[in-house]
Amino acid sequence: MLCEEREMAKKEYVPLFETRKVKGRILFRCIAASIFLGICFIIMYRIRYFPVGGKAERWTWIGLFLSELWFSFYWLLTTVCRWNAVIRIPFIHRLSQRFGKELPGIDIFVCTADPLIEPPSLVVNTVLSMMAYDYPPEKLSVYLSDDGGSNLTFYAMLEAANFSKTWLPFCKKFQVESTSPEAYFRTASELVNVQEWLSVKKLYEDMKMRIETTTKLNQIPEYIQKQHKGFREWDFVLSKHDHQTILQILIDGRGTNAADIEGNPLPTLVYLAREKRPQYHHHFKAGSMNALIRVSSKITNAPIILNVDCDMYSNNSKTIKSSLCIFMDEEKGDEIGYVQFPQCFYNLTKNEIYGSSLRVMLQLEVLGFDANGGPSYMGSGCFHRRETLCGKKYEKNYKVDWKKINDKKVNESASFLEETCKVLASCTFEHNTPWGKEMGLKYGTPVEDIVTGMSIQCNGWKSIYLNPERKGFLGVAPITLLQNLVQHKRWVEGVLQLFFSRYCPLLYGHRKIPLKLQLIYSTHHLWAANCLATWYIVVVPCLCLLKGISLFPKISSPWVLPFVYVTFVHRAYSLAEFLWCGGTFRGWCNDQRMWLIKRTTSYLFAFFETILKLLGYSQLNFVVTAKVADEDVSKRYDQELIEFGAASPMFDILATLAMLNLFGSLGAIKKATMDADQDSKVLDQFGLQILLCLVLVTINLPVYQALLFRKDNGKMPTSVMYKSIVFALLACMLAMY
């Protein structure tokens, strides 16, 4: 009888999400196969025509051969990872029909670290956007972790709690999708109800003005402090690095008083500043997240947790339901540990001057992740099962009883919970416990998200990547080149450290996750290692051109064909993918430029700093990227002018490499034009090298403009210009010596 019931259930089963193979995979495989064949011919050429005379010729040839082998190996890894890419399609209408009011509770974690870098007005918009999801408000709880321990942020949260009473019914009434007030009023084009629209906008602008005024003054007026007991906590705060736990339930969603202006219930809203003491390591964002996991387990204890950075607001009111289509699918949902959404940005220029969208990676490459065990945890925009974050291992017979989970309720009062839960966010609570090791986010690395996601997968869980047409979350991309390079340096340095640690995917994931998934992780972990081969390609052919050493086949030789084919087809397919993903031709050119800039600067620094850390010469640190910029910088960003206006060793390197290739190109042109009889011979022998230098010069045109022609504050500093010219000339003279 039981077997018959199971058979009936299988027949009646309708999936809540669908898995589809990515379009164009046959074309991708054919092109990849042809490129692989071309690479084989290039390797044959390097071996067959190895120079026998001249020490310089031999060593430069070996160096270039090793660089080409590295790029070929790296390309092969990325190609294998994309071989079986898939996309996921959730069916939200089926979720509502099947589960109705039995939807689970959702705890949303928002993390902020510094009120100067991450302004309270920005944090408030993120919090309000999370509160306004198209989801039963009584099942929604929003927690803010304030690692800056700032009363300015706390005041902003009080303002958000009050404004939410108007904002949430407004969003529901007019089906607002970008539920961040700032984003909505910035982009809204239709006034569905002019009077109400203007009224809500004025309320928001007044709130924003009050928050920004107090932030600018760095002081909360005394009459405001008397309005809430929470401000008394700051009487005992010594500094942002030395204070007790501050926990305040600003809206208790269980209470009858927690209602909006139309009488509908409001989500729970909680403010937490965990205890910090100078003698205890606070473990940055990982420690903040772990404190939230423990505190929320006593207040609301929702089975699903969403975490977002404070600058990533909700752009799609159906995001929660989309993720639940994955978790609550009766056949495949129980094995899913987390659902990751892409990190997208609202402030990108038309041609993406800094290539910040990572559109090809997020729209195509991560789909290969998904087909082989699931994407990595990206640190923001991710829905987790609470159990997986707490270290639970997947078991084949694991089955979730959503009704039973929904019956769990917390009966203690808000004031009681505020006092009793403080110990969970204390400095000493984690001492001699599995937190940071087997439980919660992992400690000891600046990329705690990658390690945590891989650990969840090693515990037997799978993950899913959802990339809906309307993006789930939108954030703020860096608007200066230096900010961008520093951010990427932190990312690639963190993942390279993992590769050389016990969390290396080839070791840590051995026999726990699929080999393809281990390789995919490795390609990302080895980003920084690309700097060495890139540097060689950028520097050595140019210097050899001045020295008269040929590194490529003659133009008249048939061996030139594989070099031309591999380069042209690879870049042409890259352009086609970029355009297919919604980019522009100029955007692709900017993306290629940033690819080169990052590999020769931020990746280089990340690589050598990782080596120094392995040798014990450097300590772990964490850098928060600024989310605000002055008006002139923003104006140049909108005009798509690259911002160089700060002195940095990265800019010294960038400018020196640009000048080196300029001098090399000019030297080659001079050599080709000085003697008309030798003109054709020079072009035949050094044609590919000259072309490479000219391509690098073209890529660096904005650098030359910033060094020599620009007059605005975004130009290269004069000191950088002088140093780059001197270093480049010195390198050229040494090469010709």
Concise overview:
This protein is an alpha/beta fold and 737 residues long. Helices cover 53% and strands 8% of the residues. The longest helix has 27 residues, at 55-81.
Please describe what this structure looks like.
- The protein has 737 residues and is α/β, with parallel strands linked by helices.
- It has two domains: 20-82 and 514-736, no CATH class; 103-477, Spore Coat Polysaccharide Biosynthesis Protein SpsA, Chain A (Alpha-Beta Complex).
- It is built from 28 helices and 13 strands.
- The chain has an eight-stranded mixed sheet, with helices on both faces. A three-stranded mixed sheet has the order 8-13-10.
- The protein is globular, with a radius of gyration of 28 Å.
- The model has no long low-confidence stretch (mean pLDDT 91).
- InterPro entries: Cellulose_synth, Nucleotide-diphossugar_trans.
- This is Glycosyltransferase 2-like domain-containing protein.
- Mn(2+) binds at residues 285, 309.
- UDP-alpha-D-glucose binds at residues 118, 147.
- One of its GO terms (molecular function) is cellulose synthase (UDP-forming) activity.
| Spatial gap, N to C terminus | 90 Å
Helical percent range? 40-55%
Largest sheet: 8 strands, mixed
Name the shape in a single word: globular
Specify the CATH homologous superfamily of the largest domain. Spore Coat Polysaccharide Biosynthesis Protein SpsA, Chain A
Please give the count of helices: 28
